[in-house]
Amino acid sequence: MKPSSILVNPSRGTIVDSDALAEALREGWIWGAGVDVVEGEPQVGADHPLVKESRCIVLPHIGSATTDTRVGIARLAAFNVIGGVLGEEMPSELTLKEDA
Q: Is 41 part of the annotated catalytic residue set?
């Protein structure tokens, strides 16, 4: 990555090595980082290597907490309930498989 790069991780904490990212920030290998998740969450204290970095923004795993996202989730849930009650297809039906 270029020194002007900003790493963004909205997925899973284990995708990014926190110690390596903190080192990259300290050494100036990248400019900054924004993470919605970190290794070890939800038990993340002030001593976490990314929390200490001034050029890293750490969110408390709330990346999906937007009005549009929450409205979409509510609509999808409602359509699933309606489909299930009417015996019709549910937009995001989950099919569980029994262990073999």
A: yes
**Catalytic residue among 23, 26, 39, 41, which?**
41
Is this model's pTM higher than 0.70 or not?
Answer: no
Same domain, 52 and 69: no
Do residues 13 and 42 lie in contact, with contact meaning Cβ atoms separated by under 8 Å?
no
Total domain count for the chain?
Answer: 2
Q: Which of 12, 26, 55, 70 is catalytic?
A: 12
Torsion over CA of 15, 16, 19 and 22, rounded to 10 degrees? -160
70 is catalytic: no
Q: Do the domain assignments include residue 98?
A: no
Q: Is 53 a catalytic residue?
A: no
pLDDT tens digits for range 25-60: 999 999 999 998 888 777 788 888 999 999 999 988
